[in-house]
Amino acid sequence: MAKDERRVYKIKTMNNISKEGLKLLPANFIASPDVEDPDAILVRSADLHDFEFGPNVRFVGRAGAGVNNIPIDRCSEKGIVVTKAPGANANGVKELVLLALLLSSRDVLGGIDWVRNYKGDAIGKDVEAAKKRFAGPELMGKTLGVVGLGATGRRVAKMGIDMGMNVMGFDPFLSIGNALNLDTRVNVVEDPKALFNKADYITLHIPYTADTKNFVGAELLSIAKPGLRLINIARGGLVDVKALKKFMDAGVVVNYVVDFPDPETMRLPHTINIPHLGASTPESEENSAIMVVRQLVDYLDHGNIRHSVNFPDSNMGICNSMGRLTVNHRNIPNMLGQITKVLADEEINIANLLNRHRVDWAYTMIDIDSPVHEGLREKILNIDGVVRVRFF
Ligand SMILES: NC(=O)C1=CN([C@@H]2O[C@H](COP(=O)(O)OP(=O)(O)OC[C@H]3O[C@@H](n4cnc5c(N)ncnc54)[C@H](O)[C@@H]3O)[C@@H](O)[C@H]2O)C=CC1
Ligand SMILES: O=C(O)CCC(=O)C(=O)O
């Protein structure tokens, strides 16, 4: 059988991918930041929008949750499967949200600074006079609004309940899995305005997309409860910083905690800028790397797709027939008919077949009982709408 697969796979690692994940790679997978002409890429937050994907790149694994740093459409056009690690770092983020809630309430950072800069020997006495400047409210009994009830948001919501808060949630696209795992005490609302109207604290846990850009802007802030503390450990672009500044100056928003500092947020008053530490725990880094490395090996070795954000999840396990071919193609009519006709014309018998689609893209896996030749790949690739063909 003509094999598409090269014996040695070259994996380009971008950012720091946990060794606990990388050590799961079989010996024929070479992972390094410096590989040339890679077969796959493992990435965290590095911006790939201007990255030139070579002809052999078949897979991009995001060791994390947000994929706004990856040009998904361009990858799909090239037949590159993009995956992520859902939920793998959610607990790490949840714990940072707890810290953010507390830091937004009491000016502990200001207090620590005051102590650090204190000159003299009477600190024991002077703290008692100074401390009122750093005081702030407790979380218990306050209302927490959680925007996005996915892997992180539902954990944050549960944490709020455990802290004695009244928790409201908003997520119009809530998956069944996340709904089933959501604490029943969370008051789920259908309009974010209901949440902005009531919440003392609001925390964002939604992806950054063209639809969610500036999600928090003048419209929602204009109905926010005065005294709002806003937590954004999701993505900077979810908040319209100019509008936020206006509502801070008016005393509506009293504090903003953001995990994505930029020149504008650095200049904002009442703002705590954190250097993107949401997932920076050994546990989150390991979980994320382990998850994407498993996806990577399964895709390169067997063509199985898991947790993809562009092609449909598809799993035929290990091939027990003579061979397997996989086709990444557009989700348009008659693709399966055309692909199977090429095989039928060559008198190749199909042992097993799976065809799935996801929005504009589809994936077909076919286990076959006969050997195939290299010319067959060209024939399938020549079908309009096919972007990649692999033989195993
Ligand atoms: N600061 C950091 O280090 C980290 C940041 N993140 C960010 O947090 C985001 C969420 O992460 P996860 O909870 O793991 O993702 P997730 O995919 O499990 O959950 C996202 C939730 O947002 C909901 N959603 C989408 N659009 C919405 C909208 N317009 N309004 C309300 N809900 C909406 C979805 O239905 C889904 O339930 C990621 O996309 C990423 O940008 C995630 C991990 C680490
Ligand atoms: O890998 C990281 O540290 C970034 C985590 C993150 O922002 C995400 O998973 O969306």
Which labels suit this protein?
alpha/beta; Rossmann fold; Alpha-Beta Plaits; 7-stranded parallel beta sheet; 5-stranded parallel beta sheet; 14 helices; binds 1,4-dihydronicotinamide adenine dinucleotide; binds 2-oxoglutaric acid; oxidoreductase
Strand order of the largest sheet: 8-7-6-9-10-11-12
The tally of structural domains comes to: 3
What name is given to the CATH topology of the largest domain? Rossmann fold
User: Count the helices. How many?
Assistant: 14
Sketch the topology as an H/E string, one letter per element. EHEEEHEHHHEHEHEHEHEHEHEHEHEEHE
Globally, the shape reads elongated
Strand content: 15-25%
What structural class do helix, strand and pairing data support? Answer: alpha/beta
Distance between the termini: 8 Å
Spans of at least 5 consecutive residues with low confidence: none
What's the gyration radius in Å? 25 Å
The major β-sheet equals:
7 strands, parallel
What is the CATH class of the largest domain?
Alpha Beta
- Tell me the total number of β-strands: 16
Helix proportion: 25-40%
Please give the CATH architecture of the largest domain: 3-Layer(aba) Sandwich
Mean pLDDT value:
96
Keywords: Oxidoreductase
Domain ACT: 324-392
Enzyme class: oxidoreductase
Pathway: Amino-acid biosynthesis; L-serine biosynthesis; L-serine from 3-phospho-D-glycerate: step 1/3
